[in-house]
């Protein structure tokens, strides 16, 4: 009699444990899905912010490159003000990029990862130019640097244009910024090779 009761008790406990484990796994799974969805929504929000800030930065870069550098002394205030805004916007973009969690983007994670890398490289170029201007106490640029700034304008404009479309397609955006990124970043071709090999 005692053995029968013990067996029933054991079966009930086993059943309760199995049901508890099942309910708990559903709860964890739903919680994880909710976390991933929130992370993806945050990434899109950061992307929208980057597009807006990048569009403004592209505008100021266009102003900057149109100032006649041979008359730098006459236009020093305009050059300073334009680049000050570009540098500030670059810092904002960097903070949005750093906050993105691209590995939560599921199947699109490699594309988001390459986009994040691309925009970090653009930011690195802007920082490098800021350091150069400060060091030289001049806004004079080489032809190559001017070409790179034009490429930065194209990248930021492309990001802004992508956001205006019905749905954001990161793969399409990466194709649009591929050529200017090859101008900006000497190592971009290597990055593309690594992505293609994976």
In short:
With 198 residues, the chain is an all-alpha fold.
Please give the largest β-sheet. none
Number of strands: 0
Roughly how many Å apart are the termini?
64 Å
Which residues form runs of ≥5 with pLDDT under 50?
none
Question: What brief labels describe this structure?
Answer:
mainly alpha; 83% helix; 198 residues
Question: How does the SSE layout of this entry go?
Answer:
Layout: H1 2-66, H2 76-99, H3 109-136, H4 143-164, H5 170-184, H6 188-197
Please characterize this protein's 3D structure.
This protein starts with a helix and ends with a helix. It has helices at residues 2-66, 76-99, 109-136, 143-164, 170-184, 188-197. The protein is mainly alpha-helical and 198 residues long. The protein has six helices and no strands. Helix content is 83%, strand content 0%.
């Amino acid at each position: 009699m005692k053995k029968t009761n013990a067996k029933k008790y054991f079966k009930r406990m086993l059943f309760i444990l199995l049901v508890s484990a099942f309910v708990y796994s559903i709860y964890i799974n739903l919680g994880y899905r909710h976390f991933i969805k929130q992370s993806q929504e945050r990434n899109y929000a950061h992307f929208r912010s980057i597009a807006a800030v990048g569009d403004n930065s592209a505008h100021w870069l266009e102003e900057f490159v149109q100032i006649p550098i041979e008359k730098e002394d006459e236009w020093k205030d305009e050059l300073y003000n334009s680049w000050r805004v570009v540098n500030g916007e670059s810092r904002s973009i960097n903070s949005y990029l750093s906050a993105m969690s691209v590995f939560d983007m599921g199947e699109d994670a490699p594309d988001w990862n390459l986009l994040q890398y691309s925009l970090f490289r653009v930011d690195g170029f802007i920082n490098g130019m800021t350091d150069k201007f400060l060091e030289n106490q001049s806004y004079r640029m080489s032809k190559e640097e001017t070409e790179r700034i034009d490429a930065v304008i194209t990248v930021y404009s492309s990001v802004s244009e992508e956001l205006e479309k019905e749905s954001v397609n990161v793969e399409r955006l990466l194709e649009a910024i591929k050529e200017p990124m090859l101008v900006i970043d000497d190592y971009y071709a290597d990055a593309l090779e690594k992505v293609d090999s994976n």
